[in-house]
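Report of the visiting student (M.T.), summer placement. My assignment was to run the structure pipeline on a short list of targets and document each run. The first record concerns Putative Flp pilus-assembly TadG-like N-terminal domain-containing protein.
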Amino acid sequence: MKSPTHPHLTLLCAEATKKGDRGQVTAFVVGVAAALWLFTGIVVDGGLALAGKARALDVAQEAARAGAQQLDIGRLRSTQDVRLLTGKAARTATAYVTATGDVGQAKVRGDEVTVKVTHRQPAHILQLVGIRALTVTAHATVRAERANP
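After the run finished, the C-alpha cells were exported:
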C-alpha cells in the first residue's frame, strides 16, 4: 500500500490502525442496510395489507348484498312485508365469500345480513424475517328494504 503524501494523514492512519478501528464501518453499514430492508418490507407489505383490507371489505359488502336479495317473495307479495329466507341468505353470502378464495361467516337477523371476511395477504419482503402472510378482516351489514313503487 502506498503511504499518503501528507505527513498528518500518515499519522492519522497509524493512530486508527493502533486503536483497532478496522471493520467498524462495515458492521454499521450492514446494520443500516438491514434496517432499511426491514423498513422497505414494512412499507411494501403494509401497503399490500391495506389493499387486502379494501378487497376484504369489498367482498364483505358484496356478499351481504347477495344474501339480502334472498327474500321471501310469497310473504312480500301477500303482506308487503320484507322478510329474508334466513338459511338461504346465510348460505348465499357464505358461498359468495368462498368463491373469492377468502374465509367468511354470515349471520342473518331479521332483515339484516352481516358478513365477516378474513383475508390472508401473502407477504413479499417480510418473508425474510419469518412473516409469511398478513391477515386482515372486514365486516359489512346490509339491510333488506322495500323500495317505493
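The chain is about 55% helix and 20% strand. The longest helix spans residues 24-68. I thank the supervising group for their guidance throughout the placement.
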